[in-house]
Every structure is written in structure tokens, then in C-alpha cells.
Amino acid sequence: MAIRLFITGGTFDKTYDEITGRLVFQDTHVQEMLQLGRCRLDVSVRTLMMVDSLEMTDADRHLVLENCRSAAEERIVVTHGTDTMTDTARVLGEARLAKAIVLTGAMVPYAFGSSDGLFNLGSALSFVQALPHGVYVAMNGRCFPWDDVTKNRQLGVFETKK
Amino acid sequence: MAIRLFITGGTFDKTYDEITGRLVFQDTHVQEMLQLGRCRLDVSVRTLMMVDSLEMTDADRHLVLENCRSAAEERIVVTHGTDTMTDTARVLGEARLAKAIVLTGAMVPYAFGSSDGLFNLGSALSFVQALPHGVYVAMNGRCFPWDDVTKNRQLGVFETKK
Amino acid sequence: MAIRLFITGGTFDKTYDEITGRLVFQDTHVQEMLQLGRCRLDVSVRTLMMVDSLEMTDADRHLVLENCRSAAEERIVVTHGTDTMTDTARVLGEARLAKAIVLTGAMVPYAFGSSDGLFNLGSALSFVQALPHGVYVAMNGRCFPWDDVTKNRQLGVFETKK
Amino acid sequence: MAIRLFITGGTFDKTYDEITGRLVFQDTHVQEMLQLGRCRLDVSVRTLMMVDSLEMTDADRHLVLENCRSAAEERIVVTHGTDTMTDTARVLGEARLAKAIVLTGAMVPYAFGSSDGLFNLGSALSFVQALPHGVYVAMNGRCFPWDDVTKNRQLGVFETKK
Known about the structure:
homotetramer, six-stranded mixed β-sheet, alpha/beta
């Protein structure tokens, strides 16, 4: 089953720059993570952008949408910063493509020992294979439909709307 | 959605004993892994045994089966050594319980930096939520039905039967 | 041989705050690092402050000096941010205490997988046992006297003055 | 200051073979560890053998001795399994070479998250620069002369003889 994986950046892929002491983007860690997971899926990875999701513009979100629309694959995972992940999910969800699209990310950069990234990547790649067409957010081991999910910023977790 | 997680040991949970220089079982790492994954699922963990799957007996497999049968939860993940994971999957599969059961494990102990364990746990917990009743093996990012899966021992990967 | 270990913060001890997405100070990682190193030295750890060394004031440096002066131990390690480590070394060096004092730190936070912190801590604790009285900077596997060391900010390494 | 680093194997360099499920030797991790430590010393690494120190023969120990003797460098670190590290230290010590030689190793393989290897390597490389000619064992943050050190097998630590 062919899967497309689009990279947009986010905490997931932040790296510590030891010269400046800042968290920055260099290359994505996703290929390394797929290797670590001994992943044998037919996954095609493409980096669309490398941005903090707080800085993602409407134009950026439409670029993600257009790439999802034109992808040959019916099953798509999008890595994304957690702060505006639900906004991008909404843009993708309202387009009602005949595809299964799962957004995921991480609360802690993969390069940190304590990251949830590898768990989340395994989760997103699994949900995208098993779920019907639709747009979802996979975080905290759970999977939310795009129109019933919000990030609780106090707790740093995703949950359904009240 | 309530999920039951049964621990049976396997490479997943092996630890290095620095006094003897051997790989041994102590406590399971699963709780620590769920925390790392910021997992917010309703998961009840129970350790059934802590064995190398090459030493798992028929009695052990039936203990796993009876625990799956009597569990209140309809969705069950079983951590298991990879060498005989498909044998236990067969015992569970032939019982045709009205439950979704996913077996997973790791090629490298979780305590090693290079382990696939966290990826696989995220994967198994996701498949078990999304798939219909049945018994499955989740490894290498893929999910196999119990009656069409084999471990390729030369490559160290799971695949469908020829 | 009794050793005093003073903590002042620096990159060494920075942690990723998953709620704010920033690098912050919480507790020091030094006790965990000593355990990891199976360290059996008689080390007394005391946290003097938890600051980025770019924000360290003259008053802070004199607090470090007074603690070195009044410590019962003759051998002292100070963990410190790398940006102004040589400034604090100068304050300590000019006081000409009859003690061996070694400053060390890290280019990458210990909590990151790619940190040099554990290597540097092993190095500093060893130099402080073996060297005569004086004030030193231990970084990059090397040990520099306080009056002949500078941080090369382009390369992110310590070296002797030209 | 030129340093020679001889590799002999030991727990330090053991790796998990995911096909056989055993701990084995492949390449040494020392170059990777020196990079992680941002080590800027002039270190020449040479692998003499890759063995479990329980299987090291008298011939092996004399090979280590002859390499120490003929090395151009006056300062030498030897990585070694902990079980017979003190035996090799004795062979080197009795030869009374006009060199500083420090043996070190690890209680847990470097490839495990919980390894003391990086701490010990930082420690050994520091002691070898600072100590006078002689043969030493650097473990647990301490440095022992070759004729007053023993491994306490119950506790898994090195200590002086009673």
C-alpha cells in the first residue's frame, strides 16, 4: 500500500544548533525514524517546507492542500507543528478529498531523548492504513477527526471539543 | 476506548545486566514507553509472563488466550518475542474471539538506543483501535492477519506468506 | 578524595519545555549523570544558580568565587555555560586560591541525545583529581589554564590564545 | 599532545545483533564517541582485537604490551573488557614502560542508553594527559594504579585492594 509522507517542520524536526544555542530546522529526521522503526511500508517522503507551525501562513496551508490533492497516493501522512495542526487539518478536511490524511507531530523534538516523535510516527502510519477516507489528527496514541479536535495548551495534549 | 495491554516479554523488554553481562528480563518498559508517547488512551497493562519467545510453551500460549478471552476489553495488544509471535497469533486467531487483538514486539531491546520498540508500540495501539475484530501482527509499520504472516529470519522482517 | 561540584546552569542543564517550546532550566541533570557514569567518587553537589552564562553578572561570579573559597574541599568542579566560562575562570584564577578548580559545560544540552555533557563531566572530574592547584577549563577533551583559553565562537570549540 | 588509543573490545563495544538476538562485536564505537565528546585532542585510534575480555589470552595481552611499547606516543589509552582489565594492567605495569597508560571500559555497552562508556572515555583521556608515567585503571570516575585495583564482581565496581 503506497503512502505519501509530507514534511512541514514543527517541533518534530527541530535540532539544537550548538553555535547559536537555538532550536532550528536542518534536514528532517523522518528517514532516520523510518529506519529505526524498521519500516517496510512503501513510503515516499517529500519535504514541503520546514517551519514552526506558528509561522505557517494561509498560503502554506494551501500548498499542503494542493500537494495532498495532486499526490498519486490515496493515503497521506503530514508531519506538522502542534500549535496550528488543527488549523491545517480544517483546511484539508473542508476540501473533502477522497483520501485518508493523518496529521501528526511531536511535543518534544525527535533529537531529544524524551521525544514522543517515534511513537507518533508509528501511530500515524498505522491509522492512515486502517481508517476510511477523511482527515485526522493522530497524537497521544489517539486519532481525532479534523472537526472534533483541539489542542489543550495548558496540558500540552490533544482532546475532543467539549 | 478501553484497551488491554498484555506483556509476555520478548526482546522488547530485555535489559542488560551489568553484573552478569547478559540480556535478562526485569520489569517491563511499557509504562515508561506509554509516558514517552504522551499516550492518553485508557490502557490497562498486565504482565502475564516475562519470557524469551523461543521458550514459550503451549501452556504459556493458552494462558495468553485465556486472558484475551476473559478480558473485559474488546481491544487488546500483546507484546511478544518475534521468534514465535506468529505461533501465538495462530493460537489466538483460531479461537475466533469477537475482539481485535494485535501482537507486536521489537527486533532490538527498547533499552538500546536503536530500538524499534516505541515505533511498534505506537503502531500496535493504533491498529487495534481502527481494525475490525480479528488477530493481527503489527511489525515493520505493517499489519498482517494472523493466517498470512511469517518472520523472515534472514532479513529479520515480517512478511506475507508466498 | 572529596570533590565539590558547583552547578551554575548553562547549556549543560537546559531542558525542553514542551508547553512553551522553549529551552529552560529545571533541576540539574548532574546527579543522573553521575549515576550513569557509575561514579564512585565522594562528590558533594550544590546548585549555586541556574542561569544562561550570557546573563551571569559580576555578582554571580563573585558568588561562585566565595563558594569556592569557603568550600571545605580542595578539589572543585564548576558546571558553567560556555559563552562566558572563560570570564568566570578569570575571576577564580585571579583569586589564586590554594585549590584545584575545573570549569566545564556542554555545547549541547545533556537531555539531547547528541550532548557532549557526559564526556565533559567525566573529563572534568578526572582532571580535578590529577592536576596541581590552579584554575582550569576542561572542554573538548582538553584542559586549559584559565589565563590561556578562549572560546572560538565560529567553530564552537575552546582553544589557547594565539 | 599526541595520544594513542588502542581498542581491544569488551562490553564497551558490544552491539545487539537483531538477527541472532546476541551481543556481538562489529566496529568500534570509539570514533563516534570522540565526535560526541567534541574531542579536539590529537588521538590516533587503532583496533588491536575485538574480544570479550574473558576470552583474552596471554598472547593477546602481550600483543597489547608490544603495541604500547612500540607506539610513538608517550600517552596511551586502552579500551578493555572489565572482567580481566586488571590482569592486562598487571602485564603492562610489570613492563615498566616510560609511558602513561590508562585502561578503561564500560559496565554497559555504549549502544545502550544507560552506558557509562562516554563518561569513562572522557575520564581516561583526561587522566592520561595529567598523570605521570605508569599504568592505571580509570573506572567509576576514579583512577587506580595497576598494582592496587580489583573488580568487585558483586557490586560491579572497581576498588583498591583491602
